[in-house]
Amino acid sequence: MSKKVALITGAGQGIGKSIALQLSADGFEVALTGRHLDKMQAVADEINGNGGHAIAIQSDVQSKAEVDQAVAATVAKLGQLNVYVNNAGIAVVDPVAETTEAEMRRLLDINVMGALFGIQAAAKQFKKQGTPGKIINASSIAGHEGFPMLGGYSATKFAIRGLTQAAAKELAKDHITVNAYCPGIVLTPMWDEIDDKLTTLENKPKGSALKDAVDGIALGRGEEPKDVSNLVSFLASDKADYITGQAILVDGGIKYV
Ligand code: NAD
């Protein structure tokens, strides 16, 4: 029987890379998509060197055509699609009052439109195959509570929860589940950028914003990408067949819902 196939967006670094490595270790063939082909290829080479099977595809989630093409290329090369991880995302650090129209539109284009296009492309392919499928979206603790200086970002991560719930209800009849992961303070390049901007805006020493955020975590350490990919591994597996429409926190104890 052919191996199941997972596509991960924004898989060149951080959480997306960790998800790609984990799903490969779980036995999936993986398609890595992102804007920078060289970064995707480097992760694919690592996976292929470890005995897995990965392909790299250049695709910007802001473009519906490119998202559709990424699914088509995955199916052409790997035969099918079973799991789609809408991981790509950006953060913008600014007070709500100073968030520019251009910044907000970019946040919406990447974090929300990108996820919408991904849900649409994946659901279309699952229905064409006549197979069950799993769609897994990146939300955040900022999708459960608006964070100061991250207002626009928080709005996009709330939007992911709305899309996840609505799509889960609509697609359940086709045996397609839709869930989201909600990380906390993950030690990736995204938080390096957030710390840099926050400390500049608040005139504080570099690293202090990240330290303050990590100090507030009940389990006493910053989150590793692996903490997130462990949850995604479960959500992508048969063990999560009866879970849909959920936005699950994996934050070491920051938000309690
Ligand atoms: P990251 O910045 O390290 O990686 C994000 C990836 O998305 C990068 O590879 C980037 O190139 C890619 N990307 C950005 N715009 C894209 C586009 N238009 N098309 C395709 N790919 C694009 O961030 P990360 O920390 O690994 O975050 C991954 C996801 O998890 C994001 O959706 C983020 O919002 C979410 N998240 C992160 C944290 C955190 O603390 N780092 C917390 C909660 C949620």
Automatic annotation (TrEMBL):
InterPro entries: 23BDH, NAD(P)-bd_dom_sf, Sc_DH/Rdtase_CS, SDR_fam. It catalyses: (S)-acetoin + NAD(+) = diacetyl + NADH + H(+). This is diacetyl reductase [(S)-acetoin forming]. NAD(+) binds at Q13, G14, I15, D60, V61, N87, Y153, K157, P183, G184, I185, V186, L187, T188. Its EC number is 1.1.1.304. One of its GO terms (molecular function) is diacetyl reductase ((S)-acetoin forming) (NAD+) activity. Pfam families: adh_short (PF00106). Catalyzes the irreversible reduction of 2,3-butanediol to (S)-acetoin in the presence of NADH. Belongs to the short-chain dehydrogenases/reductases (SDR) family. It is an enzyme of class 1 (oxidoreductase). Keywords: NAD, Oxidoreductase. PROSITE patterns: ADH_SHORT. GO terms for biological process: acetoin catabolic process; bile acid metabolic process; fatty acid biosynthetic process. The active site is at Y153. SUPFAM superfamilies: NAD(P)-binding Rossmann-fold domains.
